[in-house]
Amino acid sequence: MTMEPMNFNDIEEKGYTKIKNHGMIANNRTAALVSMNGNVDWLCLPNFSSDPAFDSILDKNKGGFFSTRPHDLNGVTVKQEYEKRTMVLKTSFYKNEKEVLRLTDFLPATEYPSINFPEMHRLVESFETKIEVDILLKATLDYRISPVNITIMEGGAVYRKNSRKIGIFTNAKLTSENELIKGKLYMSEHQKEWVVIAYNMSDETLSNFKSDYRLKDTIDYWRNFTNKSNYNGIMKDVALRSGITLRGLFYDPSGMMVASPTSSLPECLGGERNWDYRYSWVRDTSYVIEALSMLGLQEAATNYLYDMMKIIETSDEINVLYKLEASDKLEEYELDYEGYMGSSPVRMGNLASKQFQLDVYGSIINAVFHLGDIGGTVTAYMWDFVVKVVDKIEHIWQSPDSSIWEFRTPRKHYVYSKVMCWLGIDRAIQLGKRKEFLSNFDHWEHLKDIIKKDILENGVDPETGSLVQYYGAKDVDASLLRVSLTGFLDSNDPIIHNTVNRIKKELMGRDYLIKRYNNDDGLSCPDNAFLLMSFWYVEVLIDQNKVDEAKDVLTSLLSKGNHLKLFSEEIDMKTLEPIGNFPQAITHLGVIRAICKLNKKLKNN
Questions:
Q1: Quick one: DSSP state of residue 29?
Q2: What three-state secondary structure class fits 79?
Q3: H or E stretch including 307?
Q4: Which residue(s) pair with 43 in the sheet?
Q5: Residues near 209 by Cβ (< 8 Å), separated by ≥ 6?
Q6: Distance of CA 339 to CAs 126, 180, 381, 512, Å?
């Protein structure tokens, strides 16, 4: 995962760090995006769902940031890498091919979910030459609504807006100017200095943060996590990096997982496909359990499902997505920001929370099934929940919905949604019989057959013999790649072959990148390649025993990750640049599944 140093001037475009030129640090409460240029341009404190402290990735002029870099940038190149098998990030600046400055960034992590460190630690190191280092801080906290109050003190400064405040604690001499905190470090050869950013701390000394201890504890935390994995197959480092990334997106106090730590990074540059992903989606649940268990991380998978179940059972319905905490907001609103590279509107909150999406019912049963499949405990209480969900599916499966893609257009009878209803009942039958629970399995089998018959009668195009996006449609949808993976039809069934061939012809671009659909979804700016679909395509090839092709496709897809093997939600079909919220949990789930399934196939062949 090493990279060649990049020219400092190539890191940004139009005043914004390119999405791919970021690393993420996280601690199971929140996460930060750290640019290769030394900027922290996204960080919500104290939690993922809090209003950002730094958000210049969404507006280069209005947004907040924390920056540390050499004063003299002439001829500087930069390299970024993780401390092996951790979420500790190192950003190194070079001049004349010699390292002159290194930033080591982390958010303190702990095994105890009740302990919170709402702080970021940055170790600044010089090497063989003296160096002048610039520090800048500008916080957002409430999107510029209230006036700023800055207090400079010995050993730091505090940036206040009403009841919220960010402290910067450092040995650098600090001044303030026009809502900015500025500082200088004049570093001798081989000098080390800590800078700490802390939320709601106003009168503290740098030494009290115990940064050296926190760094050791954080390294131990991440290595203890990866040491629990028993995966020793192909592409191990990539698979484990995805596992670490997923673990970093968990919110330990409630056990939920955000789909991404960011909001409103565009799926299409200059367009309106900008959404807030700092919530937990039900459909991701089974993917999380499968992916983590493939890495041998059954404990994390089990805890996640039970925590998710606790949240679900507080409401009468299974919602599309859930807040991390009861006090969080779901209402969608727009900020007066220009957006990443001019992509507006910038949205906080998510309107999809109010949608009806059929696939979530099958998804949650599938999650329980996979928990049982990896040897996890499925209690009578949980079985009772499964029975209730099957009953719910029986009463609603014939209803139109908004689909997995959360269309903001009138509801339709989407084929993928119907297949997921079939899947929920199929998995409930398998689970019940394996665990010797009692229920009316004959009735469920009959219901499953009715749903399958309905899909094959209404969801197959008679001319092409392929599945279609929704009943009566002519277009295909990339989500249909998953149909054979569910067992609804065999991977070599003619309908599956016809569907996959149409997806390749109509939705696949270069480098095996696949967009989700071609139809009008009511949004301006064309849709781009959704990376998970390409990883599903790899799984289909594996199931069809096209192993060499699957290997080639997977290798190509893995090259779409950045220098740290972090993956975005989408790839621009024209420029091949990563776009969308970053890093994206569901893409990393796809990475793990594809790698582990290929590894298993290669072993068995």
A1: S
A2: strand
A3: helix 298-312
A4: 32, 54
A5: 119, 121, 169, 194, 196, 198
A6: 35, 21, 46, 29
- Six-digit token string for 67: 């920056």
The pLDDT assigned to 29 comes to: 95
CB of 507 closer than 8 Å to CB of 573: no
In angstroms, rounded to a whole number, what is the distance separating the alpha carbons of residues 293 and 52? Answer: 33
Report whether pLDDT(342) > 70: yes
User: Which tokens go with 233?
Assistant: 């197959």
Catalogue all structural domains in the chain, each as residue range(s) with its CATH number.
Answer: 6-210 (2.70.98.50), 233-604 (1.50.10.10)
Dist. CA 580–CA 260, nearest whole Å: 10
Q: Which two tokens stand for residue 131?
A: 């160096």
Q: Which two tokens stand for residue 599?
A: 């590894």
- Whose structure tokens read 């970053």? 582
Secondary structure letter of residue 42 according to DSSP: E
Would you say residue 401 has pLDDT above 60? Answer: yes
Tokens 């906080």 sit at which residue? Answer: 348
Spatial separation of the C-alpha atoms in residues 577 and 341, rounded to whole Å: 13
| Mean pLDDT over each residue of the chain, to the nearest integer | 94
Alpha helices, H only, 350-493? 359-373, 380-396, 415-434, 441-458, 483-486
Instruction: For 533, list phi and psi in degrees, rounded to 5.
Output: -60, -40
Average pLDDT for residues 525-543, to the nearest whole number?
Answer: 95
- Closest-CA residue to 76 (of 11, 128, 19): 11
pLDDT at residue 143 is higher than 80: no
At residue 388, what are phi and psi to the nearest 5 degrees? Answer: -65, -40
553 touches 535 (CB < 8 A): no
